[in-house]
Amino acid sequence: MKVLWLTNVPSPYRVDFFNELGKYCHLTVLFEKSDSSEREKGWVNHNFTNFKGVFLKGKTIDVDKAICPIVVKILRRYRYDFIVVTNLATPTGIMAIEYMKIHKIPYLLEGDGGFTKSGKGIKERYKKHLVKGALAYLSSSKSLDDYFLTYGATPEDIYRYPFTSVLEKDIIPYVLNQEEKEQIKSRLGITKKKIVLSIGQFIHRKGYDILLRASQNLNADTGVYIIGGKPTEEYEKLVKELKLTSVYFTPYKSKDALKDYSLVADLFVLPTREDVWGLVINEAMANGLPVITTDRCVAGLELIEEGKNGYIVQVGDIALLEERMIQLLEDNSLRLMMANFNLETIKCYTIETMAKRHMEIFKELLAE
Known about the structure:
14 helices; six-stranded parallel sheet; Glyco_trans_1; glycosyltransferase activity; Glycosyltransferase family 4 protein
């Protein structure tokens, strides 16, 4: 089976997925760019072992987008059993879709997640034109189902798959005991008794100002670690204004270093104003962490069962976020129950199951 995949940059989780999917088919991936300028150096993954990765020649127009007319030449020249487009919002992806529409070449649309807008206006009408007419739609969630349906898909053409960045080997076998945690804490130089962890870019959309305000009344023996780069002037000013002495902004870390911080943490918080998925949720669950996130985080809406493995709070609800954090920090048995629930839940959301599900979908479509 020959599969062509169109995407923008070789993000680490996508390359892991492509390497796994490439075990089952002849996979070629077209990348618009070799990296994303908004990400730290070392974020991308060029370890293409089980698939053919091609960096298209083109003109960069954004941090992770480029115009690559050569994509049309490739579509014209080669034949594939399936063509999957994930860069729907880039000029290269749009160019490819328009060419395939004109020449009646079947293609699939896949997204990580999404939120539906009004459906009104010129841009929204054009979006409907782009989305409508795909052979199938590969969706990660109910939210993305609704998005595809709003813009022209039919229910019978939508296929679900488990979206993730977690490999089977990344899931810890059990929740660490306190002695094991203290050993890692000592190595990291962490002295706080309890740890609240958050990981993400230091941008307004991630909502770290909300987390800072919700941390004012945490016990002095609780440390709030926010990993993602250099804090903004706004965050530093807010820390001083609120007199927060137990908040630690930590630079970007490697995957192994992030693992250590996750292993010693007591809970994970993503106070995002909007995330079309939020892979840090998957990763926190794989490390046995209870999760608190918002009603604008698709991963949370899809993976969190209220009170069983975490909590969903409304965006900007500082009081409830504070209440949920304190509740979990003070209840050891509740945290352990949620941690074990997450370790079981995330087993269905691995790179391996994601690749196998894609192959099931491809075979089902071929049979039709």
